[in-house]
Design goal:
The protein has helices spanning about 1-20, 35-45, 45-65, 70-85, 100-120, 130-175. The chain is mainly α. It is globular, with a radius of gyration of 18 Å.
Length: about 180
């Protein structure tokens, strides 16, 4: 049932990011809203549990975006690997380190996107607007990313608690 928990917020974020946010001009420079979820998976979930979700999310975003096929799968995979590497050096329970992890995640994802575009277009150069967009992403990530991660963790705990209580009730009803 964990995967049900993962699918609900992911689909909500994909719909929010692809259909609702574009209508709000002040949110145009927000970062990929799935980034905090990928970071959450890297911080608190196992590799075997997270990989199917990463692949599914990457596939959905690849199909919704105009980028090359596999761009989001690659970005999410390396973001996840980067988070798993970072937690070897940082204490996961320290919420004051979440902004650092978020900034690192945004930098990893942006580097993959810019590297891909630079590879595909030999005339590609980093303009002032790209720098402003990246700085805006970093600002939004520091301000909102840790809250998203905390909300995911809290919701995941509540989901697990409700799910276990629900099955315990059913077990008692059926005499198990």
């Amino acid at each position: 049932m964990r995967y049900c928990f993962y699918i609900f917020p992911c689909l909500f974020l994909v719909i929010l990011q692809s259909t609702i946010i574009p209508y709000f001009g002040f949110l145009d420079n927000s970062y990929d809203l799935l980034t905090p979820f990928i970071i959450y998976l890297g911080l608190y979930c196992s590799v075997g549990e997270s990989l199917p979700i990463l692949i599914l999310l990457g596939f959905i975003m690849d199909n919704l975006s105009t980028g090359p096929l596999g761009l989001y799968i690659t970005a999410y995979f390396w973001l996840f690997v980067g988070v798993k590497w970072i937690i070897k050096f940082l204490h996961v329970g320290n919420i004051f380190l979440l902004p650092i992890v978020m900034v690192s995640g945004i930098i990893i994802e942006t580097s993959i996107f810019l590297g891909t575009f630079a590879t595909l277009d030999p005339g590609f150069h980093i303009s002032e607007s790209i720098i402003n967009t990246v700085l805006s992403h970093l600002f939004w990530a520091v301000c909102t990313g840790p809250f998203f991660i905390i909300i995911y963790r809290f919701s995941h705990k509540k989901w697990n608690k409700w799910f276990h209580e629900r099955f315990a009730e059913r077990g008692r009803e059926y005499g198990e």
